[in-house]
Amino acid sequence: MTDTGIGAPVRRKEDFRFLTGKGHYTDDINRPGQTYAYFVRSPHAHAKIKKVDTKAALASPGVVAIFTGADLAAAKVGSLICGWAIKSRDGSPHKAPPHPPMAVDTVRHVGDHVAVVIAETYAQAKDGAEKVAVDYALMPAVVSVSDAIGAKAPQIHADVPKNLCFDWELGDKAKTDEGFAKAAHVAKLDLVNNRLIPNAMEPRAAIGEYDSGSDSHTCYVTSQNPHLLKLIFCAFVLGLPEHKVRVVAPDVGGGFGSKIFCYTEETVVTWAAKHVGRPIKWTAERSESFQSDAHGRDHVTHAELALDKDGKFLGLRVETLANMGAYLSSFATAVPTYLYAPLLCGQYATPAVYCNVKAIFTNTAPVDAYRGAGRPEATFVLERIIDVAAREMKIDPAELRRKNFISPSAFPYQTPILLQYDSGNYGVSLDKALQMIDYKNFGKRRAESEGRGKLRGIGLSSYIEACGIAPSAAAGALGAGVGGWESGQVRFNPTGSVFVFTGSHSHGQGHETTFAQLVSPRLGVPIENIEVVHGDTAKVPFGMGTYGSRSLAVGGPALVRACDKIVAKGKKIAAHLMEAAVEDVEFAAGNFKVSGTDKNVSIAQVAFAAYVPHNYPADVEPGLDETAFYDPLNFTFPAGTHIAEVEIDPDTGITKIVDWVAVDDFGKVINPMIVEGQVHGGIAQGVGQALLEACVYDKETGQLVTGSYNDYCMPRADDLPSYKIATTETACTHNSLGVKGCGEAGAIAAPPALINAIVNALGVAHIDMPATPEKVWRAAQQSKNKLAAE
Amino acid sequence: MPTVSMTVNGKSVSRDVETRTLLVQYIREHLGLTGTHVGCDTSQCGACVVHIDGRSVKSCTVLAVQLQGAQVTTIEGLAKDGKLHPMQEAFREHHGLQCGFCTPGMVMSAIDLVKRNPNASEETIRHGLEGNICRCTGYHNIVKAIQAAAPHIK
To answer: Are A773 and A648 in contact, with CB atoms under 8 Å apart?
Structure first.
């Protein structure tokens, strides 16, 4: 390992610009002649639009134009689409009601878009929007899934009876029932996976620009996948020719899933820029983000786990109601189905699993992928019900897990629910985590806490995730509307420096460093001479962007292939330069060498020859610039064990996290510093979900109660502990790097670890997230009263 | 429109602005210094923290017209001749940033925090960062960076 090679904690190449205020986020970009957009949004959860009067607004100072949903409909702007087709149990396709970028006759959630006001300044656009008079006829609203499937619930879309988007299942029901028939014990659990608002720190933003000279459109946007957005714009929503559209996602300040999707705002500014004849910039205020970024999670679940008398799992049954919000966001249907149910085996050799998911429309913001997307929901169900079973059967939770782990000799392991795990050794991660947290002496620590009047608890979570949705054909067979491959391009410049182009996108993950680190030893070029380029459809050949912890696992092997092509072509050029046979040329450490001789040329010399081909092989094309695409053979399966230890003050209900251990198997690690950072951030989001965060809509009015940082509790530095992080390694067997992905693990593992620790401390069966001081205090009092009564 | 003059990163600047212009708008839109970020509309996220006369202030909480003659330092004013300020260097060394959006405010707050508490404990640092939200790092490495930088900041 060199200082910058694979496995080295290389300090990030991108940091200098971020630390000196020289990052270029979308809102930092200003285009000549730019105007500003402000959206008029519905203050109501459900209403008919009787009339939109824009007269006064058009007369407001600085206002340039106003467009309404009716204007977009008249211009034949299409529906925002959902790109994953789900079949219900009865074989019918999921209900896909229209999702116009701006409401035409009905608004269906608070923050739904009604009109856009475009003005000379942002303040003037906002002032103008105040003057748009919308006459609404209110309708009853419904915000929770349990209410929305009720017989008396208001119907949100004309063609969607009972607000049921789909009723889907996975697994062998009969075989699962057999497991339950044999069971010595059945653990049951009802739980809520709380709705979250992603809250990337950079609010979404977009600038639309039209060039009449070339009849082309450019959209600068806070996107995790600019190519995908372009595809959606062109093929579906705006119907623009692809060769006339450029989407640029510059520095993006966090995404966590929320910037995958095609939203109203970028659609409208891109469309309207042509009509206004000037660039249009929109930047969300945080309140707008709360109202109309896609939210995450929001499941209500009943689960049952069948066990034999020794604690072996015989079957798992799960019934879930998943909230879709008012409209289907870009990948909404995939999240509570194929990204959720197949993960219900976890790390365990459960012989049969059956899961039924009903997806329900409500008068709330659309729900879609948020860090982990389906996998945290599955892990929470499984890791919680295992602890319920452990408690009821008086088996140590660590032992119950170990007893049911898939044996390390069983890989590749075919689960009964679609997935085939390629590699893993779950006991190793569990053992290491138990040792790091000193599990065996927990009793002493608990006694010590009790001596101080505090309740101490410990909780485990042995999670698995499936990363890099692939292969394309398999995903397509399950309903995916897009491929799961990635592109990579490696271009030598004539003077020996290198551009690396990737179709994935970095919005905090440090790709500019990791990918340079990956390419550097393969080409023998120092990382400071490698520039990683991403996020611009005019520069990068094509790409699927970044989601599902896919960038390294899918984008990495594409770059390896491109490097291999560079070396293969370089050998031909080098052979010519050294007057040797191609088969006699070896490549190592940046040098082409004739085997068994001291003749050599550097890759920089070869690159120069490729661009100044005066002395050059006749049958080789000039240039040294290679592109590769990679479609994975399977998902990757990172897994590990997290353990949380908490101390609760029963008088205040405040939970203090006193220790946190994370042992993760991400396969090969390229940059351990970046990987640890990803784990820290993931855990923080998981802790946020478990302790602090909840998106709340008022049950009667459908108003968003948690619409700002005053009401939605984001994790602060003093809410969180320092973490103890370690990794174990079983290489991924089906990609050339052996890598698995690490971006979502923390957010998947953390919530059940923490809730398991809290219920362990309190001695209760369950507590719903977020376990706020009030809930914890109530549970502590009940527990105390129950003990006193016994 | 009133003329607002102040010193920003050691340079005298003067702009005619609407009275409702916030300092953060003055900095970003009128001076083109886009390193200072806006992450919320309720003065909680801290992405816009700058130094006014040496103290950290959320630049969304003050009007530009209140700052006639003030000395303002933004993230762009910290590095000298391409050399990072010790706090910036510590953030780089300890991977205290990911997406970089909260980073300018975080760095500006951190400098003021350690100036006021030169021997700050981890707990004091965590408490002192309550006004700065980071969604990426889980704060672990931010805290480490601040602890490491503290002895080098006067």
So the answer is: no
For the segment A619-625, the average pLDDT, to the nearest whole number, is 98
- The SS3 assignment for A310 reads coil
pLDDT digits (tens, 9 = 90+) for A267-313: 999 999 999 999 999 999 999 999 999 999 999 999 999 999 999 99
Q: Which residues are B80's β-sheet partners?
A: B83
Contact A15 B76 (CB under 8 A): no
Contact B41/A286, CB-based, under 8 Å?
Answer: yes
Q: Which of left, alpha, beta for A655 (phi over 0: left; psi -120 to 50: alpha)?
A: beta
Ramachandran angles phi, psi of A779, nearest 5°: -65, -40
pLDDT digits (tens, 9 = 90+) for A26-69: 999 999 999 999 999 999 999 999 999 999 999 999 999 999 99
**Contact assignment for B125 to A717 by CB distance below 8 Å:** yes
Give pLDDT, residue A2. Answer: 66
pLDDT at A613 over 70: yes
Per-residue pLDDT for A628 more than 60?
A: yes
Question: What one-character-per-residue DSSP string does A232-257 give?
Answer: HIIIIIS---GGGEEEE--B----TT
Indicate whether A1 pLDDT > 90: no
The mean of the pLDDT values for chain B is: 97
Spatial separation of the C-alpha atoms in residues A254 and A263, rounded to whole Å:
17
The span from the CA of B56 to the CA of B73, in Å, is: 9
A621-639 as b/e: b if 16+ CB within 10 A: eeebbbbbbbbbebbbbbb
Select the residue of B44, B91, B136 nearest A254 (Cβ to Cβ): B136
Contacting residues of B for A20, CB less than 8 Å apart? 35, 75-76, 78-79, 84, 88
pTM of the model: 0.97
**Which residue on chain B is closest to A283 by alpha carbon?**
B38
Q: Contact A90/A152 with Cβ under 8 angstroms?
A: no
- A328 close to B (CB below 8 A): no
**Complete DSSP assignment for B44-110:** -S-TTEEEETTEEEETTSSBGGGGTT-EEE-GGGT-BTTBPPHHHHHHHHTT--SS-SSHHHHHHHH
Distance, CA of A38 to CA of A60 (rounded, Å): 13
CA-nearest residue to B22 within chain A is A123
Question: A641-661 pLDDT, tens per residue?
Answer: 999 999 999 999 999 999 999
Q: What share of chain A is helix, strand, coil (3-state, %, to 5)?
A: 35, 25, 40
Which contiguous run of DSSP H or E holds residue B14? strand B11-16
* CB-count exposure of residue A243 (10 Å: 0-12, 13-18, 19+): exposed
Give chain A's radius of gyration (CA, Å).
27
B62-95, pLDDT tens digit by residue? Answer: 999 999 999 999 999 999 998 999 999 999 999 9
Q: Give the span between the Cα atoms of A49 and A26, in whole angstroms.
A: 33
Estimate to the nearest angstrom the gap between the alpha carbon of A163 and the chain centroid: 26
Q: Report the residue of chain A nearest B124, measured CA to CA.
A: A718
Q: What are the chain B neighbours of A283 within 8 Å (beta carbons)? A: 38
State the pLDDT at residue A786. 81
Structure tokens at A376: 């945290």
pLDDT tens digits, residue range A224-237? Answer: 999 999 999 999 99
Work out the average pLDDT over A508-536: 97
Touching check for A285 and chain B: CB below 8 Å? Answer: yes
Q: What does the alpha-carbon distance between residue B27 and residue B9 come to, in Å, rounded to a whole number?
A: 11
Measured distance between the N- and C-terminal CA atoms of chain A, rounded to whole angstroms: 62
Average pLDDT for A736-748: 95
> Is B133 a residue whose pLDDT tops 60?
yes
Whether the CA torsion B115, B120, B122, B128 is positive or negative: it is negative
Residue ranges of E strands in A613-689: 625-630, 639-649, 654-665
Say yes or no for a CB contact (<8 Å) between B91 and A19.
yes
| Beta-bridge mates of residue B4 | B15
